[in-house]
Every structure is written in C-alpha cells, then in structure tokens.
Amino acid sequence: MHKHLNRYFGLFALPTLIAFSVAFLIPFLLGIYLSFTEFTTVSDASFVGFSNYILAFTENSNFLNALWFTVKFSFVTIITVNLFAFLLALALTKKIRGRNLFRAVFFMPNLIGGIVLGYIWQVIINGILLFWGADITQNSTYGFWGLVVLTNWQMIGYMMVIFIAGINNIPPQLIEAAKIDGAKPSQILFKITLPLTMPAFTICSFLTLTNSFKLFDQNLALTAGAPARQTAMLSLDIYNTFYGKIGSEGVGQAKGVVFFLLVAGLAALQLYLTKSREVDG
Amino acid sequence: MKKTISFFVITAIFICSVFSFTGCKKEDSETIYYLNFKPESSAAWGEIATAYKNEKGVELKVVTAASGTYEQTLKSEMAKSSAPTIFQVNGPKGYASWKSYCKDLKNTALYEALADKSLAISEGDGVYAIPYVVEGYGIIYNAEILDKYFALDNKKVSFNSVDDIKSFADLKAVVEDMTANKEKLSIEGVFASTSLKSGEDWRWQTHLANIPLHYEFKNNKANLSSDDLSEIKFEYAENFKNIFDLYINNSITDKKLLGSKSVSDSMAEFALGKCAMVQNGNWAWSQIKDVAGNTVKEENIKFMPIYTGVEGEETQGLCIGTENYICINKNASAEQQKLSEDFLYWLYSSETGKKMVTEKLDFIVPFSTFEESEAPNDPLAKEIIRYMNRDNITTIPWDFTVFPGQTFKENFGASLLSYAQGTKTFDDVKKEMVSDWKKEYK
C-alpha cells in the first residue's frame, strides 16, 4: 500500500502543484523580477536594478506614511478584535437561550465582501458625522476609527469561533475541581480559562495582525485614502503607485515585494511562536 | 528510478494537456478587439459589433473598462496573447506611455479623413493616435429655472436672459441672487454638488483647472508640444478660486460634505430639477436622460461658458477638445491591423457606421466624411455645435492633456477637498499644486 502511495504521489500532487505554480509561484517570481525593471505591460520590461526600491522610499513619503498608518491600525485592531471576540466567546459558551443563533449572527459579517462592507459603513459613518456637519473625508482620525470599527465588526465573529473552540476544549473537571475548592468566578477566568485558551490567543492575534496588514477592499471602499492619502494603508498605497503614475509600475512592484517580506516575516514569527508553545504545552 | 521516470512521464502528460487546452483557444485572426473607454456607450458598441458582423462578417470584440480603470484594464489586457487591436490614449501623456504599442497611422484612410490634421498625435514623420470624438464642457443649466428667475419681481440684476451673462461678475451676481431666492425657484441650491470624492473629482482637478492654465499658457506663449512645461506658476489661481468658491458656496450640499459626493450624484440632482446648474460636458446627456424621475425637459438643457473673471472673457466660449485618441496595436498580427483599420474607416465613413456614430454613440466627430447634417441630436451636442459655429467666440482648447499624470490630478483634487472643508487655505492649495506639477512632470 505504502509503495503504491509513493508511486502515485506525483500523480496526486501534480494538479495542486500546477495550480500552485500557475496561480502563485510563477506570478510571484515574475513579480520579484518585475520589481527590478521598468515596464508598462508585464510581458515587456527593461532591467533597472535597485532604483525602484530606492524610489519607493525616497520619491515621496507615501509609503512610509502608509506603513506607519498600518502599524497603528494593526496595533489597535489586535487589541480590540481579540478582546471583544474573547468576551463574546465567553458569553456564548455559557448556557443561554439561542446561543447558536447568536454565534451564527456574530459570524455572519465575516461572510460579506469587503467592498460591500466598506460602502455600507461609509453610509452609516457619514450619516452619524452629518450631525456635526462633517463626513469621513474631513479628518484622517474619522477614517482611522471608521476602519477600526469596520474591521472589528467583520473579524470579531471569526475570532470568536476560534475562542469558542478553545474554551470548549478546557476539561470540565478542572473547572469543577476549582469550584469545589471555592474558587471565585474571576479566579476561574484568570487562573484556568485564560491560560488554557492561550494557544487560541496566539492564533487569533496573528490572524488579526496579518489580516490588518493585508487590508485592502475595506480601505478602498471606506475612505480610498481620503483625505489626501492620509488613510491609505500599505496595499492601497501599492495599488495607487502602480496605477497612479505613468512609468511607476516598477516602483509599485518594489513596494509590493517589501510588503511581502513584511507579511512573510510576521507569518514566520507566528509559526515559530505557535510551534514553540505546542512543545511547551 | 522507475518511480522518477513515471513521475516525469505523468508530469509531461499533464503539462502537455494543460498547454493543448490553451492551444485550442488559438486567437482567431478574423477577430478584432476594441477596448472601449466610455462606459456610457458600451451598449452602443455592442450594437456596432453586431452591425459590423452582419455587414462585413468580421467579428468585433468590445470590452468596456469600468469607469476610471482604463489604464489598469489596458495594462492587463495588453499583456495577454489576444491583446486589444484597437485601444485609446488620452493625449500626449498617454501616448508617451503606450508609444511602443502604437502603429503609425499616417497612411490610413482614417487619417486621410481627419478634418484638422493638427489634432492627431504625431511624432517625427509618423501619426500614432487620431482623435475620434470631439467633446465640450461648460456650465450646463436648466433654462426653465433660469427663466423663472429672470421673471422674478425682486431680482437684483438687470439681465433678462442667460445671453446677457458675459463675465464672472455677471454670473456671480445672478447665482448669488438665485441662492437668495431659492425657495421661490423651488431649488435646493444653484449648483449641483461639487463632487470631490476621490476618483470623482476630475471635473475640478482637470476640467476646471484647464481654464486658468490655458490662460497662463497663452499668456506665456508656451509651446504645448514641447517640454518647456515642466514648471507652472498657476498665475490665474485667483480666477480658479473665484469660480470654485462660487460653486461650493451656492451648492445643494454643504461644502464640508462634498468629500462623499460623486459625479452621478451631481447629475441626478440636476436631472431631478433640484439645482439649476452643473459643470460637465456633453457626455453627461446620457446620464441626465437615464435618471429615473427626471424632470428636466430636453429643450431646456443648455450650455454656458465657465467664466472665471479673466480679462476679455466676454468672448470666451466652451472648452472644446478631445482626450480620446484611437490607436492600433502594432504588435497585433498584420491581418488584424488591417482589419482594425478597415473597421475604423467603416465606422466613420459607411452609411451604417456613420448612423451608429451619430445616433447611438452621440459623437461629434472631427472627420470630413460627415456632412453637417450628420450630427448627434442630443441637446448638449447641439449646443456644442452651436457654440462652435458662433462668430466672435474663442473656444478654449483642452490643454489639460499636457497635465502631469494621474497622481498630480489626484493630489490637486485632494487639496481642493481640504480647502472646501476648511482645513487648508487656498494659498497652500496653490503652492502644493505648483510644486506637485514640478515633481510629477516627467
């Protein structure tokens, strides 16, 4: 049986391998190559060395501004998304009526596309800001918090499901024993539930981190960078560079590669941390 | 060993089959492919394709890029093996970026038919892009509301018709008095929203900016086809401010809220009779007529020039020009290039083609193959033609085709929004615009 598996390994792995190469590997390598060139269409490029990378940082401060905005944004969302998701998970693992319905309802925003969400929230936020005679393009603070609210609304449900799984995995005996020993609910929460859901926290915080870094549709639909690119995040800035100016496609591509390195670094860190925790556990 | 061999054999089979699948879709040399820029005429292009197929048996594939995404779409389509055979550039700037794809059209029948040869984009001996439509913009007004205003007893101005408005001062007096009487006129504001949402601000950062910059170029006798435009002074900034202030202070929408208004919002406001004026071009007709609950009558839709307070503007006309130049992809096969040329000439010279152009596309064309009677019948196009034929009127050309790329325009639009919202002074807007021009001009 094992021998057969080996023989047909190629056959079974091949479709995926081809799909992976066509949809990921080839475009990725082509992308790295293009970041060193000047081009209008991808099939026709001339080599220019590192100048695109230099331009990405020196031509204007857009990229660094976007990076700083993204970092601030990710920092806030990691805290809020995980906090609210955990509280919801805690509430929805208690025996309350209709908790499956609630779980489904909280999960649902995650199923709506980012562009649609962005436009819906734009209408809502502009509607609220109208009381003060303003709209979301007036001040980058509005855009920032608008994005935070939107992202929370979208991601909390997903993270909540992971937390629920984590909480449900806690052996009931532990909690029962703690109760018999006279532990207060707060002690149970901080001494048992929280430490035992730590793996879920690691997963969720890194998911939030990478998702926040890669946020694009929501950003495009909600603010599109207004006012004056102050609320443009990394992906949107890359997009704007690529299409905004004749001859700057290569610069956009270079920014894309830098962006990839950042996200890949974060993902590697996540992998390392989750793995080491698994060994400890 | 055997394992590796079988692995390679299977791989080879798979790869072959994948490639043979794509091989089946070999491009048909009997088809031509046009990448259309104008979303408002995508249905008309569909009809043209059917008509051409019936008449000449050649398959015309038309793909329309979504509004504001032509460059993106063109970039990705051009990289494909079945790339567009006919595409368009938006002027000298667009040509510069697509140079290596533009076929020399000097010996084509279409260029032969071009009435004013200087309109085409040429370089050296070659002609690489031919304008295929002439368009104009100005202030579109609803004559019914204006007449109602001129009939008011308490109006403060002495004019009795729009034709008496000859300068910015006149326009300002009328507009401000109309704002004061807006209840009586049952409008919510004189001007439709100054749409400053990003991506929707081209009416200001491009079209309106054209006027002061045209005067600046004219004043300095700048040569638009040379490269001495790397710096501007924005000498007529004050004039830009005049008209822009008039727009945002007499608008339906509070000026702090303009950042979320789109062009279609403005056109809908105009179509529903909520405002009397809106700055836009003759292409807006299709938008006005398609608004549900439209209350503006066709015969009441008129144009007037955009006055900004420049000396001698009494004779100023509309801004008429083009930013639509047709090109043929020189990397397409020789047959396809020939077919594309034939199609374009057919469209602008045959009975069926011309009918499609004037009736379906509503284009005013720069070709001598058209008789004077063969012009579109929509109210705005008729107005453009009326202005073109009026004596003693100076038409303002579309000098914005020399503006530095999209980034410059976007930044200027964003500055204008901040100005409208009160977070930036006009001096800063001007300074940033001038320095941005220098930075973005290549």
Account of the 3D structure:
- The complex is a heterodimer of chains A (281) and B (442).
- Chain A has two domains: 2-34, no CATH class; 60-280, MetI-like fold (Orthogonal Bundle).
- Chain A has twelve helices and two strands; from the N terminus they run αββααααααααααα.
- Chain A has helices at residues 2-34, 51-58, 62-92, 99-107, 114-129, 140-168, 172-180, 185-196, 198-214, 217-222, 234-244, 249-280, and strands at residues 37-39, 45-47.
- In chain A, a hairpin with a 5-residue loop joins β1 (37-39) and β2.
- Chain A is globular and about 75 Å long.
- The two termini of chain A are 35 Å apart.
- In chain B, α2 (42-56) runs antiparallel to α13, α8 (202-219) packs antiparallel against α9 and α10 crosses α11.
- In chain B, 44% of the residues are buried.
- Chain B has two domains: 28-134 and 322-370, Periplasmic binding protein-like II (D-Maltodextrin-Binding Protein, domain 2); 136-320 and 394-440, D-Maltodextrin-Binding Protein, domain 2.
- Chain B has helices spanning 2-24, 42-56, 70-78, 92-98, 109-113, 143-150, 168-180, 202-219, 237-249, 263-271, 284-290, 334-349, 351-360, 379-389, 406-421, 426-440, and strands spanning 31-36, 59-64, 86-89, 121-123, 126-131, 135-142, 189-191, 275-281, 301-304, 316-321, 325-328, 394-396.
- In chain B, strands 6, 7, 8, 9, 10 and 12 form a six-stranded mixed sheet that branches.
- The chains are: A mainly alpha (281), B alpha/beta (442).
- The A-B interface holds A 6-7, 9-11, 14-15, 18, 40-44, 60, 122, 126, 130, 133-139, 224-229, 240, 243-249 and B 3, 6-7, 10-11, 14-15, 18, 71-72, 75-76, 78-79, 93-94, 96-98, 100, 196-199, 254, 256-257, 259-260, 405-407, 410-411, 414-415, 417-418, 421, 423, 439-440, 442.
